[in-house]
Design a protein that fits this description.
This protein has 437 residues and is α+β, with helices and mostly antiparallel strands. 32% of the residues lie in helices and 28% in strands. The chain contains 14 helices and 23 strands. The strands form 6 sheets. Strands 3, 7, 8, 9, 10, 11, 12, 13 and 16 form a 9-stranded mixed sheet that branches. It has a 5-stranded mixed sheet with strand order 20-19-21-22-23, with helices on both faces. The protein has a 3-stranded antiparallel sheet with strand order 4-6-5. The longest helix has 21 residues. 42% of the residues are buried.
């Protein structure tokens, strides 16, 4: 993509309303713009990151045996009255009426609707287990939406739901999601730590939230150092095997938010204790028959008896993750994207657009990288070098490839790693080979 054609409205100054790093940088980097309190339009750069994150989430859900569907954003209030949550949920639920005066709502979550789908279509234990998910926009009417996409009113969420014949099966599904979440966040360059959590308005008696460490995190967390240092992607996972030993390996180590922190127990860890700030990026729940019983999600068992199915639900804040990744990966110049979620892999900077030799070399690099499926943002603008470098550092692409008159005469270009700051003067073909892997 040529930067001269790309819609990238960067800002030099930080808007006054931005209170945290991710909000400031997302506005300055031209990723989002607010349309009303807690509701954002995603501009091309931000949308590319959002889709990268969404795809990683999807691939890991699929690998764990989940099947994707899509449910509507607007739900009938009668389902929530059946479950007993319509009045209990509170003012965060946006309640509306259609033209026929039927009570509707903008879904904050989908336990009722997925249970309704299940009860109408699944009648026998032979059709179990089921793991279903979708990735969809949700709405919760926060009293004071703030911190940009970290706590907005409208947000993109992956929510999955499990249906099993008994508690043992439900725990197996829970463990699949537990492991899938660890892999999902690791692929995004995040260290996500599972911590026992309250179930809140979702309900149930087993719950973990997944928290990433970031200096600007919203809550204080404490955990064993081994939870931070574990390399998740180096371990092969068989989702049909017993995953309980893996879950036990994590849950037996100390991990707690400030709300559940036990100072006496934590002190025993000594130097193994990590104390840091954290951001919640995912939450999983097992809640048994909390929804299946009032909504009548029943299957016929092997002996002809009626069995109320056991359920769980599992959420990941996809749009929230964009902000969370920035909170964990930035410096005083801007964003530092992990390669797996970067909107472009390479920022190609032509320091003297209009110069025949610079245009030729930069154009050739752009064509060859693009032909090999490397996503390149080519800064071909007629701007000062300082402006181009500042914009590239701000938007945080993993690699910067710089073409200038002096380098071209010597047959060289500069390759900069955004994360480490390391710069190398390389022959053009060597730089190309490096980026092509």
């Amino acid at each position: 993509m040529l930067l001269s054609r790309f819609f990238l409205p960067t800002l030099k100054e930080t808007p006054a309303e931005a209170q945290i790093v991710s909000h400031r940088l997302m506005l300055r980097a031209g990723m989002v713009r607010q349309s009303s309190a807690g509701i954002y339009s995603w501009l091309p750069l931000g949308f590319k990151v959002l889709k990268k994150i969404e795809q990683i989430v999807r691939e890991e859900q699929d690998a764990a045996g989940c099947q994707e569907l899509l449910m509507p954003t607007i739900q009938p209030a009668e389902l929530w009255r059946e479950s007993g949550r319509y009045e209990d949920y509170g003012k965060e639920m946006l309640r509306i009426k259609d033209r026929h005066e039927r009570d509707m709502l903008f879904g904050p979550t989908n336990e009722e609707l997925i249970t309704d789908i299940f009860r109408k279509e699944v009648k026998s234990y032979r059709q179990l287990p089921k793991l279903l998910y979708h990735i969809q926009w949700k709405f919760r009417d926060e009293v004071r939406p703030r911190f940009g996409v970290m706590r907005g009113r409208e947000f993109l969420m992956k929510d999955s739901y499990s249906f099993d014949l008994d508690k043992a099966g439900a725990v197996r599904a829970y463990n699949k999601m537990f492991v899938a979440y660890l892999r999902t966040f690791a692929r995004m360059g995040l260290k996500a730590i599972p911590m026992a959590a309250d179930t809140g308005p979702i309900g149930g008696d087993l719950s973990h939230e997944f928290i990433i460490l970031a200096e600007t995190g919203e809550s204080q967390v404490y955990c064993h150092r081994d939870l931070v240092e574990k390399d998740w992607l180096g371990e092969r996972i068989d989702y049909e095997a017993d995953l309980q030993p893996i879950v036990d390996r994590f849950t037996r180590l100390y991990a707690a938010t400030d709300e559940k922190h036990d100072a006496t127990q934590a002190t025993k860890l000594g130097e193994a204790l990590v104390s840091a700030r954290g951001i919640e990026v995912g939450h999983i729940f097992y809640f048994g028959t909390k929804y299946s019983e009032p909504l009548g999600a029943v299957v016929q068992g092997p002996n002809g008896e009626n069995i109320t199915v056991e359920m769980g639900s599992y959420g990941i804040g996809v749009s929230r993750l964009v902000g969370a990744i920035i909170e964990a990966h930035h410096d005083d110049k801007g964003i530092i994207w992990p390669e797996s979620v970067a909107p472009f892999a390479v920022g190609l900077v032509n320091l003297k657009s209009g110069d025949a030799d610079c245009d030729r070399v930069a154009g050739d690099l752009y064509a060859k990288l693009s032909a090999n499926s490397v996503a390149v943002l080519y800064d071909d603008r007629d701007e000062r070098a300082g402006v181009k470098f500042a914009d590239m550092d701000l938007i945080g692409l993993p690699w910067q490839l710089v073409v200038g008159p002096k380098g071209v005469k010597a047959g060289q270009v500069e390759l900069k790693n955004r994360k480490s700051g390391e710069r190398q003067e390389l022959a053009v073909e060597s730089a190309l080979a490096r980026l092509l892997g």
